[in-house]
Design goal:
With 160 residues, the chain is α+β, with helices and mostly antiparallel strands. It contains one helix and ten strands. It has one helix at residues 2-34, and strands at residues 40-48, 51-59, 64-72, 79-88, 91-100, 103-117, 120-123, 128-131, 134-137, 151-155. The strands form two sheets. An eight-stranded antiparallel β-barrel has the order 1-2-3-4-5-6-7-10. A two-stranded antiparallel ribbon has the order 8-9. The radius of gyration is 21 Å and the shape is globular. The termini are far apart.
Length: 160
């Protein structure tokens, strides 16, 4: 009776070990994506009244987009974070992961859409739905790029 139980225990341990190895491989793959050098880097700035948004867009070899976005809005804590996404036609869809103010313990994540027209980007307004803690644009609901506050113009990138 002890032999089958011991055999089952040994088999389960081997199965758990193989799952752990797979997770380690995925972690290494994730690190490789982050250190990939961009094919091009473009910087943008948007001003609206006393609000400012700075955007740095890195285009990777595979067409994916990464970058940095900092929002300084009047009477609100500064939002600083990273973007990750890709173009669909002339529209850039990204996920913006950021911290707000000095509170580094809580991170927020919001979807954003930018329409590219020449050397400018237009930040669109759309209906956002949150399900199980994840926010995304509502399918079938249009994103407005006409009545907007923020239109980004290309600027020289400043090294920090």
């Amino acid at each position: 009776m002890k032999t089958p139980v011991l055999f089952c225990f040994l088999f389960a341990c081997i199965g758990f070990q193989s799952c752990k190895n797979n997770q380690e491989e995925k972690a290494v793959e994730g690190l490789q994506v982050q250190v990939e050098k961009p094919v091009s880097v473009q910087c943008y700035k948007a001003l609206y009244e006393q609000d400012t948004i700075d955007l740095k867009v890195n285009t990777l070899k595979n067409g994916k987009i990464t970058g940095d976005l900092a929002m300084t809005l009047l009477d609100m804590p500064k939002k600083v974070g990273k973007i990750a996404g890709e173009f669909s036609g002339d529209t850039l869809f990204v996920s913006y992961t950021f911290i707000q103010g000095a509170n580094e313990k809580i991170t927020f994540k919001n979807p954003m859409a930018f329409l590219k027209r020449g050397n400018t980007l237009i930040l669109g307004n759309g209906k956002i739905q949150t399900t199980l803690g994840a926010s995304y644009f509502v399918k079938g609901s249009p994103i407005d790029f006409e009545r907007v506050k923020f239109k980004f113009t290309m600027v020289d990138c400043v090294a920090k």
